[in-house]
Amino acid sequence: MKITVQAIHFSADSKLVDFIQKKANKLDQFFDQIITGEVYLKLEKVEDEANKISEIKLMIPGNQLFAKEQCKTFEEATDLAIESLRKQLEKHKQKIRTKETSLKEVINNDL
Questions:
Q1: Per residue in 57-100, pLDDT tens?
Q2: Which of 38, 41, 80, 109 suits a disulfide with 69, CB 3.0-4.6 Å?
Q3: Any idea which UniProt keywords this protein has (predicted)?
Q4: pTM of structure
């Protein structure tokens, strides 16, 4: 899966980009039809320590999944966003299986 990482208003170091790529590649285990992914890293100007935002958008056939998390570190925010996307991918796969099963039932009933 091809992942593009964009750091907005700062430059992300290669360790962070490698970490994000490694975590995002694990999503292929749950759904092998992911086309591309886009990661946006942002620093929010707030007094709170949790000012780092990670937004991840995945393109899959016929759909687009999105997760956004805000934490103290980009790594933590990315971990939470990836976990959210994993759950979304599992729901999407279940929905596809349900449709395929009901379609097979309709075809079998018509025969």
A1: 999 998 999 999 999 999 999 999 999 999 999 999 999 888 88
A2: 80
A3: Coiled coil
A4: 0.87
